[in-house]
Design brief:
Largest sheet of chain B: 2 strands, antiparallel
Number of strands of chain A: 0
Shape of chain B: globular
Distance between the termini of chain A: 13 Å
Strand content of chain A: under 5%
Number of helices of chain B: 4
Structural class of chain A: little secondary structure
Strand content of chain B: under 5%
Order of helices and strands of chain B: HEHHEH
Distance between the termini of chain B: 7 Å
Largest sheet of chain A: none
Largest interface: A-B, 5 and 15 residues
Strand order of the largest sheet of chain B: 1-2
Oligomer: heterodimer
Shape of chain A: elongated
Number of helices of chain A: 0
């Protein structure tokens, strides 16, 4: 769901 | 579709005024702006994380005013004791995103 190695777009994760 | 949005006009006006009070840039609020508002609800962080997942429909890490209304709607319902769904029910998807 998220780019590999990228950061989450969810500020609560 | 022509399904009515569950966020009614009166509630939308309230959510829009909160949205504007948070200082959107280019019509968008970043996670940093929205997070403290949702934390104010005192709901568990895992619930708020799910609220964010369901609200940020384009997964860009920011909420526009319709996405923000979805987030606020879910938070208010959760505070009334309704469970936050695992996926967004079609009537909750803003008409602009269908």
């Amino acid at each position: 769901q998220y780019p590999a190695g990228g950061s989450s777009t969810n500020p609560f994760l | 579709g022509d399904m009515p949005w569950v966020v009614k006009a009166e509630e939308k006006m309230k959510f829009d005024s909160i949205f504007e009070s948070l200082g959107p840039v280019g019509g968008m609020l970043t996670g940093d702006r929205v997070k403290p508002v949702l934390l104010n609800s005192k709901l568990p962080v895992d619930i708020l994380g799910r609220v964010w997942e369901l609200s940020d429909l384009d997964r860009d890490g920011m909420l526009d005013r319709d996405e923000f209304s979805v987030a606020m709607y879910l938070v208010y319902r959760a505070l009334e004791g309704e469970p936050v769904p695992m996926s967004l029910p079609p009537p909750l998807v803003p008409p602009s995103k269908r």
